[in-house]
Amino acid sequence: MKKEEEAMAQEKRLKERMGKIKHKIMVMSGKGGVGKTTVAVNLALTLAAKGYEVGIMDADIHGPNVPKMLGIEDERPDVSEEGITPVFVPPRVKVMSLAFLLESKDTPVVWRGPLKMGVIKQFLTDVIWGDLDCLIADLPPGTGDEPLSVAQLVPGIDGAIVVTTPQDVALLDSRKSVTFAKKLGMPVIGIIENMSGFKCPKCGETIDLFKIGGGERAAMDMGVPFLGRIPIEVNIVLSGDSGIPFVLEHESEAAKSFKTIVDNIEYIMKGE
């Protein structure tokens, strides 16, 4: 009986926490190495710069890199009887990640499915997110435990944003992510094509390192919106390593792309 009461209390707390959040979005990818976390972090900061209150839930249990990209690796969330207070990043971003709770940066997470689902549930029920305009869940690659847990646990989830690169091998997996969302009855907000062309800083010529346009074609084939493409820029890599989000430091084609993508997400979310 006690377990049933605890489960009911947890479910009530989950609904209360999520009820204060207007929009819940999953950022996912079919495969690793496509820049999904970079996209998630910079989307969050772009939304915050427009005046939105944003939360980032780092649900990549085995590779929680959000704190590194925000320069907050050494921060720790406050824990009280009321719950866990996420780490705050100016101007309006709250962050929760398993990275904050590990003994060191080199500590691996060697967990099976049930443990991973448990910590994701704790992030949703015990973290004091407060009133948010948007909660972004940064997920690990693929369609395994973590994406399934978030999709099933979050009430009223708005949908998934799928990040891909233009080459065929990435597109194959991104299409699986779209199918995954559709099978769960979850809307696909759209596809973002990352690493889409590289403009030489010396001669100005654009080089299609990983091809270009594949994400847009995949979106068209799958019948989902195409949110935009982000070019490769050296400063994106440097910003990720330095812990200063790219969109806060640079006014370039990539930064403009993030702003256009956020405009498209706003347009879709408002149902216009």
Based on DSSP secondary structure assignment, what is the total number of beta strands?
12
Shape: globular
Derived from helix and strand composition plus strand pairing, the structural class reads alpha/beta
Assigned CATH class:
Alpha Beta
Distance between the termini: 48 Å
Strand content range: 15-25%
Here the CATH topology equals Rossmann fold
Task: Report the mean per-residue pLDDT as an integer.
Answer: 88
H/E element sequence: HEHEHEEEEHEHEHEEEHEHHH
Low-confidence runs of at least 5 consecutive residues: none
Helix content: 40-55%
The CATH H-level homologous superfamily? P-loop containing nucleotide triphosphate hydrolases
Q: How many independent structural domains?
A: 1
Main sheet strand line-up: 5-6-2-7-1-8-9-12
Rg from alpha-carbon coordinates: 18 Å
InterPro entries: Mrp/NBP35_ATP-bd (IPR019591), P-loop_NTPase (IPR027417), YlxH/NBP35 (IPR033756)
GO molecular function: ATP binding; ATP hydrolysis activity; ATP-dependent FeS chaperone activity; iron-sulfur cluster binding; metal ion binding
Protein name: Iron-sulfur cluster carrier protein
Family: Belongs to the Mrp/NBP35 ATP-binding proteins family.
